[in-house]
Amino acid sequence: MMKGLVRIIKENPIWAIILLGFVYRLIFLLSYWSSPQWGQLLVDSLFHDRWAESIASGHILGNEAFFRAPFYVYILGLIYSIFGHSLLAARIFGHLVGLISIFLTWKIANRLFSRRAGYIAALIHALYPMVVYFESELLVDSFFMMLFQLSILQLLVSIDRKHYAGFILTGIIIGIAAITRPLVLALVPIYIIWIVIAIRPPKESIKRAIIVILAMILIILPVTIRNYVVADDFVLIASSGGINFYIGNNTEADGVSAAMPSPLGRTWEIKDIRYAAEKETGRVMKASEISDFWFKMGLQWIEENPGGFLRLYIKKLYYCMNNVELSNNRNLSLFMNSVTVFKINPLNFGIIFALALFSIILMIQNHILNKERLLIIALIISYFALIALFFINARFRLPAVPLIIIVSAYGFDYLINSLRTRESLMKAIPAVIIGGGVFLFSVTNIYGLNKSDIAGGYFNQGNYYLYLNDFDRAEEYYRLTLRENPTFQDAALNLGVAFLRKGQGDSAKYYFMQEMANSPDNPRAYSNLASIYYLDGDYANAEQMARAALNIRPYFSDAYILLMRIEHARANESAFEETFQQALKTAPDDARIYLNAGLIFSGRKMFDRAEKMLIQTLNLPERAAETDDLNFNYSRRPDALQSGVKARAAYQLGYIYGIQDRIPESIDMSQRAIAMDSGLVEAYINLINAYGITGDIGRARELLQIASGRFPQNELLRQIKSRYE
What we know:
725 residues, mainly alpha, 38 helices
């Protein structure tokens, strides 16, 4: 078997390169697996992970129009349904996709240039650190990159053979790429133009172009139909395009971050952009209308600020070509330097980009810039021109990287050959000078960007440890964040949250106030401070802070819930009712509002209203994973939050039914509460008492034994236990 493998590798070295790529990825994966950052999914990765979990649990169709393109996430959901919630399985899949991508790089480079250029391109791709890193993240980019390559190769092969089946397959691949990242649709005209140029007579080229388009539509159509069926809204694939365009084109846009203009900043949520659009238009809007609204806002800014747009666009093109690897989630500089196989690897974007320009100059000099090579160059240029309309970071430019590597391989191969003859070496001097100049340009920092963004990296690690309830580690990283950037948004806020959860209210109050000073438009700082005042019985200051939060964000549920509690504590029934109704109006789908109202009505012994509110809590539909803002951050798991809220509602209903001597209903609700949240000790107590009332002492004792084992320190359980001994 080993001899056979050696023979295969000798006959076709591409398998040796793929094997090398596999080993390189395996070393990285093992290193990553043993690091504390293995489970630290950030923003988009976390969103994909939680959405995929929801799909794997059976929520296949979903409830709302897609905000993000769905195909990769559904594949991730399939992986989870087979292997369970396994980040290892998800990352292995990403690296398998990466190995396919290496093979495609070899195929295209081999076709465009030479067998040796193909091997060079594949080798660069196999060892390129940033490509390997993104394969391991739960992001669409590596998967889309592979589909993009496959569509190009299939197009070239189809033009050779001219069979209709090949063009159908080309359209299918483009369609799959589109439901992975819709951006590819803007490149379809290049595919069509290429078909028209490459195939004669024109009548035959038009037929094949139509076939490609129809096959592509056939793949996209089910997604469009699904959006219409579940949301009564015509969303072709996803509704995030408009807001992404606006983020890249507004007065405060910097071209390299996914931040909205103040006061929203980088912590904006889907409900924020919905509220702003509906407030501006004065009507309720569908997802497609909201996307159109923000797209038009971006266009309006461009029309009113053509000079500003041009300067910003040039800046974004600059970062398309710059050696720095920008990230809007994880601090790439810190991470890459923490992985040995990446740290010692000299390959970077500046090198391959300079080699690509060197190659293009050589091809022009040697008059070998044929149609297929022009196609690859045109796609690189078009792709960069396209993504620069939005905002730039490392993963957004990733799909163009294999194409740049393919072009650069020709120049590398030429340099190897030119060493044999002085004439070839001298001929390459102009290209070397230009390539060297391009490399020096790529490592400049014209716009003074803080390439390390160390504060952001520390902040994200702090959020992860806060989610794990490791408050000391979270505190450590938030302090490091503030040391690097004393005004970093949410750093003081989350540090305060860590102190609050440790029971250190004074320290929490200090950092909430610091967050208010750093970010006066952050409603969470005011709301959190209001919570402390409320717990201290300082209702006047609590109300002031809660209303300040609502002045900033009038639809902020947390502030409404606090005001409801404050007015209840003051026994101000009219103010409570007014606040409650306003809360329902602004956030009708927030189960916490109904639950808190139910608890308050229950405390007032208004059991009919309490029952109505608690039943409403239980009957609210599941949160839509495909658009849930909570899926983007570690603050709370939306499924756990929903389950916990409903469990509390079921427990309270069980309690009310017990008081009303509706024992069968009390038992049913208490059992539902325990099924949803087995950590809810009050539900066990309810159920034990209910069984005792019915005379089922055996079941009461059995449940008491289970509850006592789970909650050995609970005083009420101890008292109940003494009655049954």
